[in-house]
Design a protein that fits this description.
The chain contains 6 helices and 2 strands, in the order βαααααβα. By secondary structure, the chain is mainly alpha-helical. It has a two-stranded antiparallel sheet with strand order 1-2. It is elongated.
Length: 99
């Protein structure tokens, strides 16, 4: 399954390996916690004003800050869930056939 991921960590490291999240938040005049969540890829929604400030700060396009990636962990969990559901369905069908 595809998911949107933040690439802020990589952009920051390429721009200045010593740049801290706190300094970046101060430089772009944005809430530290929001910048931290984006850096750690914990953000559920990406505020447009934050994306704009980061794009201007790093001189990048939004696609360089976020991107679509395959989520291998979710794929494995989804496959296991589907297999488990199929096993349960087969057991139910077997019970029905034995009646």
């Amino acid at each position: 399954m595809s998911v949107i991921r933040s690439k802020l960590k990589e952009v920051m490291e390429n721009h200045d390996p010593k740049l801290s999240i706190r300094k970046l938040a101060k430089d772009v005049n944005y809430h530290f916690d929001s910048v931290r969540r984006m850096y750690k890829d914990e953000m559920v929604q990406y505020p447009r004003d934050l994306l704009l400030k980061l794009c201007l700060y790093f001189n990048v396009q939004p696609g360089q800050l976020i991107g679509i990636e395959e989520d291998e962990d979710r794929n494995c969990a989804l496959d296991e869930l589907i297999d488990h559901q199929e096993d349960d369905n087969e057991k139910e069908n077997d019970k029905g056939a034995n009646l």
